[in-house]
Here is the input.
Amino acid sequence: MNGLTLGSVYAVVALGYTMVYGIIQLINFAHGEVVMIGAMVAYTVLTLFAGTAVPPVLQVIVATLAAIPVCMLIGYALERVAYRPLRRAPRLAPLITAIGLSIILQHLAMLIWSRNPLPYPQVVPTVSYAITSGASPATITNVQIVIILMSAAMMAGLLLLVYRTKLGVAMRAVSQNQAVAGLMGININTVISLTFVIGAGLGAMAGVMVGSYYGVAHYQMGFLLGLKAFSAAVLGGIGNLAGAMLGGLLLGVIEAMGAGYVGDLTNLCQLSSWSDALAQRCHAEPYLPLFGSNYQDVFAFMVLIAVLIFRPSGLLGERVSDRA
Amino acid sequence: MASASISTAKPLLALERLAVAYGEIHAVKGINLVVGEGELVCLIGGNGAGKTTTLKGICGLLPVKGGTIRYDGDDITGRPAYQLVRRGLAMVPEGRGVFGALTIEENLAMGAYARNDRAAIAADIEHVYALFPRLKERRRQTGGTLSGGEQQMLAIGRALLSKPRLLLLDEPSMGLAPLMVQKVFETVLAVAATGVTILLVEQNAKLALEVSNRGYVMESGEITLAGDAKSLLHDPKVRAAYLGA
Here is the structure.
């Protein structure tokens, strides 16, 4: 369940990467920082509520609703100020700009919210439910349920938007051929801006979810989260919405499984027949893992490397070919 | 030289000393061209003469370096394409520009993007289907699965959905089988008959002149001949250069 929850969050963040990539072939490395700022803004709002009689659920909703427009504004500004002037530049230029923006946003957040990890107020008490029976049952918490359901709703909403609305069709048209889309009467700049704004809005919600799930927010939290979500987008096939969702979920599960089993798999005591010294040691202490669950983060990048080697277009990625 | 080119109809499109650069190359070097309301005018010339660049300059897809473009009496020089569609100026680009990953229905809906009259759009889509029954059969398939000729039909149908007053057609016969070329030209005539003004860019000079009212001949960025389509068809220079006779 931990994997599914993490995976949902990765999926929502990955959508932000993949939407932008799909439309202008840019990897917006600052997207992770947008997620971080979403978490930070919600943190600030939640601390303002501290000690008031406002119902906890309402507090979280208000905090989220505050984070969304802030992130949307940042998403819009990033595109308008930094990426749009570079739209006709070689692809490396906007990529480096994206990395620069990521660093700028991190440090702005550090100036505003301090360099210390901020404890997220646990306004809604966590309740754990057992979903299997047995001595150590699998459990799911109310927070996890909300995160999974919210993510599913966001993904469904986004798919509806992209495949069932005029704006969505226009987005796909722009992603295929900007000049022809313009000839159809589509204002390309508006559509691209909206893509950034929607991606950032999703990122804001993901930020609040991560903050409340881990109970902590930090100005650097967007970096690793962003890289993992980017890996998820690549795993699914970057530019492909369903791919981002699948990639996110898979990555979350792989990570949770990896963290859970890496200790057992690398337990040196499995090799105790090789050496008497080791056998003696294991007799006293049968669990001697070489790698612990703190190696969790490695799995995302192992997956990224494997995908890039064996299937660079990702699981659901289109083969790069243009008829027409 | 250009006396025959001055149309008696009210000009819908007028290019005055229009210059357009394609990157560093001055592909269009100050041309004058008029298309009267209701006319079918063709612009012919060899590869690299600047025909496509001219159309792209008109639609704001390439930056205009000099001169003016008047449409319906207004100066539209340098306006972006998406604004022009709303004023009734549509273009079918070279290579058709079908959205390969969008369904045929979605492609058509994009043609009507600037409109908001849902009922009328639905009726007009049905009208396009009546014109090109093949498209209706394949409405849920993606544009990329169509043959070249079908894509051209889709591109023209899509442009018609913006309810254009002036339609710019860039090489509609390019890369098509002879039978399909015939069909495309029949369609162009049918569209013209509904009162849409057309500026047709073609390499197939003979067919283009046969369907047009007037024609312009372009050579290395300049208009070298202009006049009545019939007389151009019999002009010895045109015949020698473009009609292979």
Residues 1-5 of chain B have pLDDT under 50 and may be disordered. Chain B touches chain A at residues 59-61, 80-82, 85-86, 90-91, 93, 96-102, 106, 109-111, 113-114, 143-144, 151, 158, 162 (CB under 8 Å). Strands of chain B lie at 11-22, 25-36, 40-44, 64-71, 74-75, 89-92, 166-170, 197-202, 214-219, 222-228. Chain B is about 35% helix and 25% strand.
